[in-house]
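Figure S7 source data.
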Amino acid sequence: MPYRLTVIGTGYLGITHASCMADLGFDVLGLDIDADKVRRLNSGELPIHEPGLEPVLRRGLDSGRLRFTTSYEEAAAFGDVHFVCVGTPQKRGEYAADVSYMDSAIESLAPHLDRECLVVGKSTVPVGTAERLADLLARLAPAGVEVELAWNPEFLREGYAVEDTLKPDRIVIGVRSERAEKMLREVYQPLGDIPMVVTDFATSELVKTAANAFLATKISFINAMAEVCEAAHADVTQLSKALSYDDRIGGRFLNAGLGFGGGCLPKDIRAFMARAGELGADQALTFLREVDAINMRRRARMVDLARELAGGSFHGCTVGVLGAAFKPNSDDIRDSPALDVAVTIGAQGGQVTVYDPIALGNARKAHPELHYGESALEAVRGAHVVLLLTEWPEFVDLDPEELGKVVAARRIVDGRNALNTETWRSAGWHYRA
Ligand code: UGA
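Tokens for the predicted uridine-5'-diphosphate-glucuronic acid complex:
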């Protein structure tokens, strides 16, 4: 008899995990405290944009193996394994992560537990959190109920969430008992032969943070090279390509441009620095301060380039912005470099019109002060400067001739090094990247 699973928290991670586990044949109960979200999920409506996820969600609902609730009591009665997937955002005005949703989830679930089960943290947390939560769980669970905690960080990327969940590069679990290890091995057995690292709580928490710190460092490395290339009149795209042939370096996450954003990399490197400081190991991570600074400098550089193309000032200048999501194939605008640039230019007097294929609704809600177009052509109509800030395929495929007919001036900054320079230049565009 396979385990019955609950998934607490229905963000990008939780919805994907719940839907995929139901697809693998488990009975799954998703839980969220947002009743409206639960209602929408139960009717097969995805509250986020994630390619390929909706059919998996619907299959789960239709098969009767997946449903969603707001009741912790029901979740406690249902689950053998409870996955906690709640958000751990950056604290306001601080570097540290806010893990209070994690605490709330355990506090809400634990008192209702009345049978043997495993509680598994999946969210990205500062090292040491699992140990603290294990104590909290032990304190709040009714006496005599056999319950323990395990840690199982998640490495999925938005835009590829289903693929990454069903075919992960590796599975990492932090456990304190053979029983917990055995249960998690059984849960992931349907995924087939995936490399598995079984370790302690602290190491499992750190693997996730270290992975994101490495990825962020790789991006900032190539962006630092871009700064030097620009000063030396060299070509960072060629440089990156040449580096990528070295297997030890590899070409992924080596695209220079506007840098990283989203709900993970920026806040994770900051939370990592904050936690290292608490542990007295802050010196080990001072380089991450530089990684962060290089990344933020990209946004400032983009604004400078746009201003230069606008003739030195944004006043009286119309700027067409292509992209609002923090990356293509996502509707996520959390810490989006594209929106950050758009907002800054607006604040400096530019008349900014933004278009994004999917993230327009979210952008509108968060930044009603900007103007929005319903298509790329509409966003750049009458523009003195066009900025490509998120490399959606439909932007990469834009016809420079067609675009050239509606703009006020053929000037473009390619913030993602995504366009074919020659094609745009030969169509008479002043092209910068
Ligand atoms: C990231 C990690 O890649 C996942 O492994 C991790 O599980 C996830 O965070 C998380 O912690 O939950 P995600 O935030 O979805 O995933 O996005 P990425 O694909 O990593 O992209 C992050 C940012 O880096 C984007 O803004 C993207 O445009 C930028 N980027 C990426 C570059 O600027 N250059 C590159 O070469 C690659």
